[in-house]
Amino acid sequence: MNRLSHVRIVLVGTTHPGNIGAAARAMKNMGLRDLVLVTPKVFPSEEATARASGADDILAEARICPDLQEAIRDCALVIGASARLRTISWPQLDPRECARQVTAGNAKTAILFGREHSGLTNEELERCHYLLHIPCDPEFSSLNIAAAVQVVAYELFLVAQQQPHDDANRPLLATAGEMESFYGHLEKTLYDLRFLHERKLGPSVMRRLRRIFNRSVLEKKEIHLLRGILTAVQLRIRPQA
Amino acid sequence: MNRLSHVRIVLVGTTHPGNIGAAARAMKNMGLRDLVLVTPKVFPSEEATARASGADDILAEARICPDLQEAIRDCALVIGASARLRTISWPQLDPRECARQVTAGNAKTAILFGREHSGLTNEELERCHYLLHIPCDPEFSSLNIAAAVQVVAYELFLVAQQQPHDDANRPLLATAGEMESFYGHLEKTLYDLRFLHERKLGPSVMRRLRRIFNRSVLEKKEIHLLRGILTAVQLRIRPQA
For the whole model, what pTM was predicted? Predict the structure, then answer.
């Protein structure tokens, strides 16, 4: 029984196939199997297979996606690795906290690792409930992507090994798709209200609202409650228009 | 002041120069600088420099030794990484214990990593005070050597770094009083909307909403945004009543 079977590693826009292979090896060392590649530059590749060094089964089972949304659609928890300690107040986890958070439940979880030189885009990071930062020397802070996967997988393995099973009665978390539908509904309602029109602040307001609700890690039932409120607002506004 | 300046990484009989470069990068990420190579198969090498990716200063300063004895002559503590959980009763450390042990003092310390396929020989392991084993899936237990260096260096960095966080630039969180005013405003708005009346669910709905926002740990500015939305709802509803 694999305690980490709900954890997916998503490599976004990886340039060097060797890194994909090395990441697969790091995953398999630590009991992770679910690898998704978003628009890898070169894959499959002999170099990836060589660097996987026996983890070629992970590569063979890896799914390739044309965009991030497709890769995380079924995920309730999305965590994005970020080399920079951004000034924006997105909730941050270090690998140990990340491991605790991820193994606290068994909701499908994606951990995203970005491009070798530029990481994840801000737009991609906004899809994340948490940013994951690996502590390191601030003067030389860019870890190799497979090395980053190794550290995160190692912490996951440690925590997964320690914890007894007791996941039966945990509430179901909303999936990334359900979160997107909620944000769409929220944005529409704010336009109906003329709240966004008047301020011409749509993107920035929506970003701030996403941050609030992402931090909260919503359950499915909570999404239903919040959308019920939005619907009530829309019903009271429309007849007036 | 580098808390890890007494720590040396010793790579013994490394076959692939790319691994030497990747290990140098992992070291520099975590504030380690002292690299010693015992009979590397190929070094220096373009591949090592490429994989070092900016840690070429570590490579340039690396010392090459003809045997292990030469590499550890000035070391008071010698720790050897070993993939296998050997049956011999050598004292073992995991990376976290290793980091504590190494940073407990500042005696010159060598941490040895063996050959890609065969690790350290028994004779080499016998020079060690401790064996270091990285916990991993016993069915696929051979970590890449640079990945192993990364995990060990990461644990060293964490322990070396342990100091209070700098809270200076954190956003101001909402006070308990501000949260109560927000919940009062939210409840009033839901009554104005007839959302609560109709369902006779006031206390239970408010409890669930409190849980959502409490989990999120709101900032003062976020409270202002949310209350701005509530006010916009109230303004659009009232004329209708």
Answer: 0.77
